[in-house]
Amino acid sequence: MRFDRLILLAATAGSVVAAPVKNFAKRASPFQWFGVNESGAEFGNNVIPGAWGTQYIFPDTSTIQTLMDKGMNIFRIAFLMERLVPNSMTGSFDTDYLKNLTEVVDYVTNAGAHAVLDPHNFGRYNGAIISSTSDFQTFWKNVATKFASNEKVIFDTNNEYHDMDQTLVLNLNQAAINGIRAAGATSQYIFVEGNSWSGAWTWVDINDNMKALTDPQDKIIYEMHQYLDSDGSGTSATCVSSTIGKERVSAATAWLKTNGKKGILGEYAGGVNDQCKTAVKGMLDALAADSAVWLGAMWWAAGPWWGDYIFSLEPTTGVAYTGMLSTLEAYL
Ligand SMILES: *[C@@H]1O[C@H](CO)[C@@H](O)[C@H](O)[C@H]1NC(C)=O
Ligand SMILES: *[C@@H]1O[C@H](CO)[C@@H](O)[C@H](O)[C@H]1NC(C)=O
To answer: According to CATH, what is the number of the domain 3-331?
Structure first.
């Protein structure tokens, strides 16, 4: 989803408490993973670095716990590269930002769920398209070094590359994989994303070259995004039709099968209305029918500052928490 200006509501700092270990293996879900995006640390990207509590906030671990109690087992945690490494892509960490991010990650993984590290950067750093694969590889090597011993961390190379050279997108993803493995992070999954906002509906036309990515650990997962409004941007609560969900993922499913790849729907949403609920269900049913290649899905989005945002799944007042979660719970 494209990042629009967000209205920031009152800041509330989440308190960190010990999470009980849940046995996710008992779940009857058709998916390995079912969860949500956690927004906050990437907010206010028009002010860099911005101030904690004013431009951005970290996800609230108590509401993450509420979603875990519902059975969710994957949380995609957005952050900004410019805040994590303020001086340059290859520079040192802002240790305070890293600590806050790590606290959320550890909360999720200590509970037995997977935490997806999502640099929400659209293939850009300080507003410019990332063109140095070598710098990007170093960035990922440095990040992965910090999380190398946590096998429940998943590395997502970047959120939604767009309007970039197609070979560059391929090479940036490969550089990230190489950097992560060079850091000794060898057990973790890596989510790769494609150009054109990593859309599932355009994947085959745009991102076919991504099948060339290689990983010595063979743990690449293709992360695609899909919204169900007319332009697929996820900015409207109106879905095109009740069948648009399954229609928009079908070519991507065929691509995954043909090429022997695995995928995850890393972002999806529809408005809280009957047409969208049927469309969302149709899409998830289609993924579930091909769960050999589709490992799961993550709703867009939860997070403490969404307010009355049309897709907010933040417990307990988010409009999708009250109006859409019951539809999603069939897959938990
Ligand atoms: C996840 O978070 C950010 C918003 O803060 C957004 O820009 C990105 O596109 C999100 N994914 C979805 C589903 O929108
Ligand atoms: C980290 O979180 C604490 C609150 O727990 C806050 O005071 C601090 O400003 C945050 N720092 C950054 C860089 O986000």
So the answer is: 3.20.20.80
How big is the chain, counted in residues? 332
The C-alpha torsion from 167 through 171 and 173 to 178, rounded to 10°, is 160
Span 155-174, mean pLDDT? Answer: 98
* Catalytic-role residue among 160, 193, 223, 314: 160
Rounded CA gap, 312 and 302, in Å?
6
Answer left, alpha or beta for residue 163, where phi above 0 means left and psi between -120 and 50 means alpha. left
Asked if the bond preceding 301 is cis, omega within 30° of 0, the reply is yes
The token pair at 261 is 């790849």
Alpha carbon of 100 to ligand 2 centroid (Å): 6
Q: Is the pLDDT of residue 176 over 60?
A: yes
Cβ neighbours of residue 87 under 8 Å, at least 6 residues apart? none
On the CB side of 145, how many CA atoms lie within 13 Å of its CA?
11
DSSP type of residue 47: S
Strand 128-129 vs strand 124-125: parallel, antiparallel, or unpaired?
Answer: antiparallel
Tell the residue nearest (CA) to atom 5 of ligand 1.
39
Query: How close are the terminal C-alpha atoms of the chain, in Å?
Result: 24
C-beta atoms surrounding 162 within 10 Å? 19
The answer to pTM > 0.85 is yes
Q: If we measure between CA atoms, which residue out of 250, 261, 267 comes closest to residue 293? A: 261
* Cα 235 to Cα 252, 265, 269, 305, 327, distances in angstroms: 22, 18, 10, 17, 20
- Please give the share of the chain, as a percent, with pLDDT higher than 70: 92
Distance 270 CA to ligand 1 centre (A): 13
Return d(Cα 72, Cα 17) in angstroms, integer.
18
Is 37 near ligand 1, meaning CB less than 6 Å away?
A: yes
